[in-house]
Amino acid sequence: MSAPGLLVAAPRSGSGKTTVTLALMRALARRGVAVRGAKCGPDYIDPAFHQAATGHPSFNLDSFAMEDRLLDAVGHLATAGADLVIAEGSMGLFDGIVAGEGRTGANADIAARYGWPVLLVLDVSGAAQSAAAVALGCARYDARVRVAGVVLNKVASPRHRRLVEAGLARIGMPVLGALARDASLVLPERHLGLVQARETQDLDARLDRLADLAEAGLDLEAIRALAGGAGPSGRAGALPRPPGQRVAVASDEAFTFLYPHMAAGWRAMGAEIVPFSPLADEAPPERCDACWLPGGYPELHAGRLAAATRFRDGLRRFATGKPVHGECGGYMVLGESLEDAAGETHAMAGLLPVATSYRARRLHLGYRVARLRADGILGPAGTCLVGHEFHYASELTEAPDASIALADVTDAEGRPLGLAGHRLGHVTGSFFHLIGSREAPSPPIG
C-alpha cells in the first residue's frame, strides 16, 4: 500500500507554503515519522530544502510536463519508504495552463490524481473574516479536490486570530494552527527564488526553529490524521533513460538544477553519475561517455569559470568525440561568452555559437514543448520533449538557423516560439530544462 499523502497549497504565491511545509516536515521527522517530500510543478530549488528537512530525496510531480506513466513512476519514488508524503504546491492551488482536465500543471491535478487532501495555507495579513471567503472559494472551485483544513499565516495578534477563526467557523472549515508574523522565518532569496539549500547558512538551525514553531503553533497530530489517498503505483521503467553508461555531471554552486527524477531514472537503469566541479577547475572525467551541464548560477561565477582553464580545455577535448549537453546555465557556459550583471564579458567554452548576457535582465518563464531536429543525446530526430524555462539571461547572438538549431519549440498552449537551442558536432544545449517526453518519435523535420 502507498503511504498517505497531503498537499500543502495556498490561494496564491507568497502565502507561506514553503515555511509551513518545511516546518511540518522537520517537526514530524523529529518525532520519528518517515516523511517524504514532493514538489508540484517544475521548481528545482524547493526539493533540496525538503531533503534537508526530511533526510530523503524529494521529487517533482508535474501533470503537464509528465505523461501519466512518468508521473506515476516519479510519484512512486516520492512515496517509497514513507509513513507520510507531504507535497508542496507552487503558485496558487488551481494555477496552471489552459489544458484538459488533469493536464494543467496545477497543484490541484496532483491532489485529485492521488486523492491527497489539501492543507490550505492562508496569509491573513490585511484580512480577517474575509479570509473565510477565500477558503470557501478554494474548497468549492473543483469538486475533485478536498480542502481538509487551513493553517493561518502572518497572524498579527490574538484578537486578529479570533476574528479570522470566527469567519472560518461560519463555513465549517477546520483551523489546524497558526503562525505569527515573523520576519526571521523568511528564507533568503535571489533572482530565481530561494538561495539554494546548500548555500543557506545555518540551514539545520533554521529548520529546527521552524519545527519548534510547528510544535507550538500547529496541531501536528490532527494534520497527520488528515493525510490519505490511494497514492501512485508507477514503475521505474517509465523514468527518463540515461544519456550514457557513465555520465559526467557538473555539480557545484554554479551547476545545481538537475531534476531529481532525471538522476533517479538514470541510476535505475544502471548508469553511473560522476560529479565534477567546474568551479574547482575540474574537467569531465575521461572515463565517462557523456557529459551533462545542468542549470544553476553561472552568471554569479562567470569570472571563476572563465579562469578555469583545465575545466574548459578538458570539456573541449571531451566534446571532440563524446556527447555534451547543457541546460540553461550549462547552455550559457557552452557558448562563446557570458556578460555578467556589471557588464563585464567573460569567455566561456566556445563550443556553441551563442553569447549570453545577464546585464539586460528579462524574465523568460514557461513550459516548452520541443521537437528535436536531429539525432543526439536527447533522442532521435522528431522526439517530442517537454521542459520548463525560467531565467533572466538573454541571447546576444542571432537566433539559430535550421541547420544548427536544437529544436522547434512551442509554449504549453501550442503557440510557436520558433527555433531554439543549438547543436554543433557532439554538443547540444538550450535554455529549457528537460522534464519528460511525449509520444514516440516522428519522422525527422525536413
Automatic annotation (TrEMBL):
InterPro entries: CbiA/CobB_synth (IPR004484), Class_I_gatase-like (IPR029062), CobQ/CobB/MinD/ParA_Nub-bd_dom (IPR002586), GATase_3 (IPR011698), P-loop_NTPase (IPR027417). Pathway: Cofactor biosynthesis; adenosylcobalamin biosynthesis; cob(II)yrinate a,c-diamide from precorrin-2 (aerobic route): step 9/10. The record marks 433 as: Increases nucleophilicity of active site Cys. Keywords: ATP-binding, Cobalamin biosynthesis, Glutamine amidotransferase, Ligase, Magnesium, Nucleotide-binding. Pfam families: CbiA (PF01656), GATase_3 (PF07685). Its EC number is 6.3.5.9. Residues 246-436 form the CobB/CobQ-like glutamine amidotransferase domain. Residues 7-191 form the CobQ/CobB/MinD/ParA nucleotide binding domain. Its cofactor is Mg(2+). GO terms for molecular function: ATP binding; cobyrinic acid a,c-diamide synthase activity; hydrogenobyrinic acid a,c-diamide synthase (glutamine-hydrolysing) activity. The active site is at residue 328. It catalyses: hydrogenobyrinate + 2 L-glutamine + 2 ATP + 2 H2O = hydrogenobyrinate a,c-diamide + 2 L-glutamate + 2 ADP + 2 phosphate + 2 H(+). GO terms for biological process: cobalamin biosynthetic process. Comprises of two domains. The C-terminal domain contains the binding site for glutamine and catalyzes the hydrolysis of this substrate to glutamate and ammonia. The N-terminal domain is anticipated to bind ATP and hydrogenobyrinate and catalyzes the ultimate synthesis of the diamide product. The ammonia produced via the glutaminase domain is probably translocated to the adjacent domain via a molecular tunnel, where it reacts with an activated intermediate. Catalyzes the ATP-dependent amidation of the two carboxylate groups at positions a and c of hydrogenobyrinate, using either L-glutamine or ammonia as the nitrogen source. The a and c carboxylates of hydrogenobyrinate are activated for nucleophilic attack via formation of a phosphorylated intermediate by ATP. CobB catalyzes first the amidation of the c-carboxylate, and then that of the a-carboxylate. Belongs to the CobB/CobQ family. CobQ subfamily. Belongs to the CobB/CbiA family. HAMAP family: CobB_CbiA (MF_00027). This is Hydrogenobyrinate a,c-diamide synthase. It comes from Methylobacterium durans.
